[in-house]
Structure formats: structure tokens, C-alpha cells
Amino acid sequence: MSADDFPDGVIVDPGVGDPMMGMSTGMEGAFGLVLILVVAGVIFSIVVGARKYRILRDAGTDPFTVDAAVAAKVLKSDMLAPPAASAPARSVEERLGELDDLFARGVISADEHREARAALLRG
């Protein structure tokens, strides 16, 4: 073999072959694998979306506005409502009067009355 046997002037050793041949086959395989994974992902997403749509529709909820419906329910829930105004704190005189009334009715003893009165006056 000589350079005259090849019109381009490129001599290729028949034992080695095209060094880029293996590279292009590997790239095509990787591209094919990525393409298969993307198509499988799209199909999976469509199947999951269709199942969710059917479940929501069967439950009587509009599948396209379910996020807004859930947000509205959360905002209207009692958990997010401001706390109810508690009863105003009673004055010291009212609480002392209640202690005196409990003592007068015999609900608490003289010692309990004295201790509760001292605790109330201490604050």
C-alpha cells in the first residue's frame, strides 16, 4: 500500500480502524438513553396528572382550582383566626371581694383566706 492507493492521501491501518468510530457509537448510545429517560419521565408525569385529575373530579373538586380552594379553607380555618379577646382582668378589689365571699360562705378556711389574700396583695 502506498499513498497513491488512497485518493485523499490518508493512509488507514486496516488493523486499527477509524479511531472516532467507537466514540460516535458511544455518544449515540448515551443520547438514546437520555432520550428514553426523558420520554419515560413525560409519560410518568402525564399518568400521575391524569390520576390526580380523576381523583379530584370524583371528589367534587375542580382539579384546576384545587390549590386556591385549599388556600381559602386554610385562611378561613379557626387555627389562623386571631385569638378571641379574653375577659378583662379583674381588679384587685374584685378579687379580694371574691375571697371574702368564699370565706364568708365557708368554702375556704381562715388560713387559706389569709394566704390567698397575702398572695393577691403581693401581686
Q: Can you tell me about this structure?
A:
The chain is mainly α and 123 residues long. Among the domains are: 33-80, no CATH class; 90-123. Helix content is 61%, strand content 0%. The protein is built from 4 helices and no strands. It is rod-shaped and about 120 Å long. The mean pLDDT is 80.
Give a short overview.
The chain has 123 residues and is mainly α.
Describe how the helices and strands are arranged.
Elements: H1 21-58, H2 66-76, H3 92-104, H4 110-122
Helix pairs in contact: 3-4
Using the CA coordinates, give the radius of gyration. 43 Å
Tally of separate helices: 4
- The multimeric state of the shown protein is single chain
- End-to-end separation in angstroms reads 113 Å
Order of helices and strands: HHHH
**Strand portion:** under 5%
Q: Characterize the overall form.
A: rod-shaped
**Uncertain stretches of 5 or more adjacent residues:** none
Number of strands: 0
Secondary-structure class = mainly alpha
